[in-house]
From TrEMBL:
This is Gamma-glutamylputrescine oxidoreductase. It comes from Paraburkholderia hiiakae. One of its GO terms (molecular function) is oxidoreductase activity. Its EC number is 1.4.3.-. Keywords: Oxidoreductase. Pfam families: DAO. Signal peptide: none annotated. InterPro entries: FAD-dep_OxRdtase, FAD/NAD-bd_sf. Residues 29-380 form the FAD dependent oxidoreductase domain.
């Protein structure tokens, strides 16, 4: 990770208590490895169930991808429609999974209110802007299926989307009205504060270096200490190393960057996203943006080659802004930072039983802010025995490694130019 003080940290209003480094021996009912959004939500749920919990974070809470992302709270699958999820998972599990996705923002906002987390939570919705006629047809399917499912959604024709976005560059789109955006770093710190209030013991700068079976329990070892527990939940996601044999080959790390502009003036604010929704478009070349608490636009992107990454990334994002929002010509970028998220080919989060009472949970393919809330809680109930495999929204599997992992990682890092080319062709055809 570059830049220790990334932008979300700089503007966070949440209390940033320090947590100690683990030293010596500890015992607990459960150890959560990874202090990101998944791990913190799981720890909160385990504590709610009456368990004693230790969370081990290798850096400081909020410093990894959980605190560096775009902070959009999105109740929609990464690529699939609700009916496609039912076809993939079966009708029972598919509907359960769709329900989990649809309810995730509400669950997250309830947690924010419960712990009074100061994360600049904006609950004005999320829009998906469709860049071509083909994408618009796909977007219409998403909207109609979520509406039939009972989700709070709204269709936006070309004129309506243009008014909501302040851009004439899209064919139309749809909106999830119960979604929103927030400061993800502040969210992590606030969840940590809430977990600590509920009795969870949190340790920073305490990387788990080994998980070993010790009689009927597990021992999780760090450089300066260890914790003995009956169950372990691993939520390391993109930063999964060699803590468990073969685990890193179960996901594909994808490096992304973010750029923040200088603050927009009042006139610019009235013409760009005047309703303060978050937005993602349907291009394969990633583009999503929203305002932060300082009236800056925050946008994401990725590179194929990472030399001179900051300068190239800022130039690329500002070029996209000039295309999407011509009225912002002359606006400058002021901040750049990076992060790494995890994806899997089918875009479905993982619940993997690595050994008895040892679970892995995570991998959200860009939907982690909302999904980590319900996914962490689901994993906690599974680990504690208050829910069974049959209750889960996806099948609980053993370790699922990606076939040809090395090739898949390489392809993921090089596919960006092809995505840009296809987007350009589709957009050109749509404008004819």
């Amino acid at each position: 990770m570059n830049e220790a003080a990334h932008h979300w940290l700089k503007i966070s209003k949440e209390i940033t208590a320090d947590y100690p480094v683990l030293s010596g021996g500890q015992t607990a009912d459960y150890v959560v490895v990874g202090g990101g959004l998944s791990g913190l939500n799981a720890a909160i749920e385990l504590a709610r169930l009456g368990a004693s919990v230790v969370v081990l974070e290798q850096d400081t809470i909020g410093q990894a991808a959980s605190g560096r992302n775009n902070g959009q709270v999105i109740p929609h699958h990464s690529r699939a429609s609700p009916s496609e999820m039912e076809q993939l998972l079966g009708s029972v599990r598919g509907r359960r999974y769709n329900s989990l996705v649809a309810s995730a923002p509400t669950k997250l906002f309830e947690l924010i209110d419960r712990y009074e987390i100061r994360c600049d939570s904006v609950r004005k919705g999320w829009m998906q802007a469709c860049h071509s006629r083909q994408a618009l047809d796909r977007g219409r399917t998403f909207y109609e299926e979520w509406k039939a499912f009972g989700a709070s959604v709204e269709w936006l024709d070309r004129d309506a989307l243009s008014e909501r976005m302040g851009s004439v560059n899209y064919a139309g789109g749809w909106k999830a009205t119960h979604a929103g955006h927030l400061n993800p770093y502040a969210l992590c710190r606030g969840l940590a504060r809430g977990a600590a209030r509920d009795g969870v013991r949190l340790y920073e700068k305490s990387p788990a270096i080994a998980i070993v079976r010790d009689a009927s329990k597990w021992s999780v070892r760090t450089p300066a200490g260890e914790v003995s527990a009956k169950g372990v939940l691993v939520t390391t996601n993109a930063l999964t190393g060699d803590i468990w044999p073969g685990l890193r080959r179960s996901l594909i790390p994808v490096r992304i960057y973010q750029v923040a502009t200088e603050p927009l003036n009042e006139q610019q604010r009235r013409t760009v996203l005047p309703g303060n929704e978050g937005v993602s478009d349907t291009r394969r070349d990633l583009f999503a943006c929203r305002y932060d608490s300082e009236n800056r636009l925050e946008a994401i992107g990725t590179h194929t080659l990472w030399h001179k990454a900051a300068a190239r990334g800022q130039a690329a994002v500002m070029a996209k802004f000039r295309t999407v929002f011509p009225q912002l010509d002359g606006l400058k970028s002021t901040e750049y930072w990076e992060g790494t998220l995890a994806v899997v080919p089918d875009r479905i989060p993982r619940l993997m039983r690595l050994a008895p009472n040892l679970l892995f949970a995570g991998v959200y393919s860009g939907r982690g802010v909302a999904m980590s809330t319900v996914w962490g809680a689901s994993a906690a109930r599974l680990l504690s025995g208050t829910a069974t495999d049959a209750d889960m929204p996806v099948p609980v599997t053993s370790l699922r490694q990606i076939h040809g992992h090395g090739v898949a990682v390489r392809v993921a890092s090089l596919v960006h130019p092809w995505h840009r080319f296809v987007d350009k062709v589709e957009t050109t055809i749509a404008r004819r």
